[in-house]
Structures are given as structure tokens and as C-alpha cells.
Amino acid sequence: MQQEPIIIGGHHIAPGEQHTIEIPISYLYTQHDMTLPVRVIRGKKPGPVLFVSAALHGDEINGVEIISRLLQSKVIKNLRGTLIAIPVVNVFGFLHNSRYLPDRRDLNRSFPGSASGSMAARLAHSFLEEIVSQCTHGIDLHTAAIHRSNLPQIRVDFEQAGIEEMAKAFGVPVVVNAPTIAGSMRHEVQKRGVPLLLYECGEALRFDETSIRAGVRGVTSVMRHIGSLPPRKLKDKPHSTVVAHSSHWIRASVGGILRTRVKLGQKVSPGQLLGYIGNPFGENPTEIFAKSEGIVIGMNHLPLVDEGNALFHVALFGKDSGVHQVIQRFHEDMQPVDLLSGNPEYGEAEALTPEMS
């Protein structure tokens, strides 16, 4: 298979080369250019062209650290094909600790964008034309919105051919079948026929070590699955994943102060108390109950809630799915270790060990 040329931002990157490229996006009133920073790494051998992106929402920073560790890992030396890493897509939001762009636009509702529109439209357009148009696969890294947290999970649309196998290869406990939303990056990338995984983990503006380690392991596992890296060693154990057939949010029936009685990743049963909402005096509490048996995969951490606020995101699974045991094993696997020594139990120890100069 012949290596196709890669041209990004007017730069030609040949097999065996790597470059950091600044793609021009907009000119700010500070007399500075706003650019999209991209690292392109090409292996000497042919293979897939994978993009890994983070901080599409500027305050979702776990993915930035995942990409940083991935780029410093030893496995990249064995790359086949091309890796395009975009650790900060929404640079403006990242600088301001904000989800949004300066006009309060949500970049993940601005695709496909246009070359002459708003900053969000221009950024979306450039991302699709400069990066996605050259790729065979993609992984987009997210966290929950501010004041919420997500159990490490993969979201995909099972209508895409082969996407379920790719999602399971990532190796986090839960895969959620989530149809795409018009205007989102995932919607446009899927329309172009590029298989895309969306990894959700942790919370905004915070590093979560479990989520980060699972993300590095997951990206490298997918790279092995699609042929960007050599196959796993036979002694390595696959990581268990369970597919949720649906999910729903439980919302506040009244406004007040929320006292939570469950944890992220916990199994809940119909009628189980999840928390209660009372006034500042602790009077007249309204109890919040689970509607179905499932796993809490997302939850609100801000105690001050208005009527209608989303509180608990519950994923539903078939009977005897074993998802609770899968989550327990996952957390045991992800126990913090010395990053310099790695952990052989991961089967990806080399991917978790940054090279030191």
C-alpha cells in the first residue's frame, strides 16, 4: 500500500516525518492570529490516518493530558500510517477556561461551518477540510459539562459499519449507543464516512487520573485494533466492555439544595433513593428515586439546583450483563501507579510511560 501525501496548513509531511503546524483560523482584535495547533506524526510504514482531538469545548481538559501522554509514549515509535493530534481544538475557550467561543457559540453545534462565517464556523470548516478530509478514523475526547462528571464511557452511533468493534476495543466499561446531533462534529464526520469514537470521562476543568489513564490505554488499544500499531501480545488480556441499550437523565422535580446518596458508577434499582432536595433549613425534602435498574454514568455535583436540572444519568443494560463487575474490575485495573515504571497488568505499560530526557 502506497503512502498518500499529507498536506495540512500548506505543509507537506512525508512518511517518517513529524511536524507541529499552526493552521490559521482568525485574526483577533489584539492584533494576534488565532491558530489551530496540530501535531502530525507519520510512520515509515503505510497504515490508517487517525486523528485524536480534545478540548472541542475549551474547559474539557482531560483529553489534553491524554494526548500529551500519548505523544510522549514509547509506542509511537512503532506507528504505522499517520497520527494527527489536536490537543486543543477550541483555543479561545481553553485560554478562558470556557466551554464556548467569544460570541458564546458552542463549537460542537457549529459544524460543518463555513470559510467566511463566525469564528466557530471558520474553525469547524478548517477542522473538517484540513484534518478530517484526510483521515480514515477519529477519536474525539470529552468530559462532562461544568459541575458534572462522567464515568469513562464511549458514545457511538451503531449505524456506522464496524463502529461497535472499534468502541469495544477502547476498553472502558460502558459503550452507549447515542445517535448523532445535527451540527455536532460527530454528525459531520460520520456523514463523511469516517468512523469516530467519542470518549466521555471526568469533569470540566479538572484532571481525573483514572479517566486519563483509561484514555491513553483506550487510544492505544484502538490504534492496535485498526492497524496503526502492532497487534497486542498474546499474553495481554482484553478489557471488558458492556453495551448499554439506552440511557436517561433523572431531573429535579423541584428547586432547592440537593443531597446526593449515590456515587458515579454505582448500580441502582427501581425505587432506590438517589438523593433528596430540600430548602436551606433542611425542611420539606423531596426525594429523588431511580426509575429503572441501571448504572449511574453521569451526575451533577452542584448542590444548588433549579426545577428541571439534570441530576443523574442512568444507563440501562440487559439482565445478567455483568456491568457492575466490569466497572469494579476497571477501577482495580486503573489504580494509580508510578507512571515511570508502568503497570504490566495493563497490557499497555509502554503507552503509559513517558519518555524522559
Protein architecture, described:
Helix content is 20%, strand content 31%. The chain has seven helices and 19 strands. The protein has helices spanning 62-72, 91-95, 119-131, 163-170, 185-191, 209-226, 323-333; strands at 6-8, 11-13, 18-27, 33-42, 45-54, 80-86, 137-142, 148-156, 174-177, 196-202, 242-244, 246-251, 256-260, 267-268, 273-278, 286-289, 294-300, 304-305, 310-316. 43% of the residues are buried.
Protein topology:
Blueprint: E1 6-8, E2 11-13, E3 18-27, E4 33-42, E5 45-54, H1 62-72, E6 80-86, H2 91-95, H3 119-131, E7 137-142, E8 148-156, H4 163-170, E9 174-177, H5 185-191, E10 196-202, H6 209-226, E11 242-244, E12 246-251, E13 256-260, E14 267-268, E15 273-278, E16 286-289, E17 294-300, E18 304-305, E19 310-316, H7 323-333
Parallel strand pairs: 5-6, 5-7, 7-10, 8-9, 9-11
Antiparallel strand pairs: 1-2, 3-4, 4-6, 8-10, 8-17, 12-19, 13-15, 13-18, 14-17, 15-16, 17-19
Helix pairs in contact: 1-6, 4-6
